[in-house]
Amino acid sequence: MFLAANLEAKPERPKPDIKFIDNGSVKIGIDRSMGASVTWLSWKGHPENSINIHDPGRLLQQSYYAGRMLERIKDGQSKSWSPWSWNPIQGGGVNSWARVTKFEKKGEEMLFAETIPKLWDMADEEAEAVMEQSCEYEAGMPNVVVVRNKFTCKRKANDI
Q1: Residue 138 φ/ψ, nearest 5 degrees
Q2: Domain coordinates in residue numbering, the chain
């Protein structure tokens, strides 16, 4: 039986698995346990983390909306936000974290990840999609981090 109260609980976070790049001006990190989203950003004048990592709906991450608004309460969607459209997010969905399939630090200048996102509105349901993300410093600009995202939708046309 599904209980709406479960949706209010913060999902148990797996042990952090963070990769960082730090050029002395800006430090950025991605965490495998949080869908390889950006979970750390600090700089010389602000050495503390500036990213909200409270739950999968926060973070610095990819999030997309598409398709019809669907009422899926019988499948576990909360009445509080039903109906909801297809909404894959990199960090994870209600009470769940996304699955990371690639998690790499390339030298001292780049982080790369590939993630199977979760649907935001559903408890532990993977989206039919793949998210790729790279983070690196802008050439000649040590205070600038460039985050590139690629989203591949694998939904069938009749599901949209």
Answers
A1: -70, 130
A2: 4-159
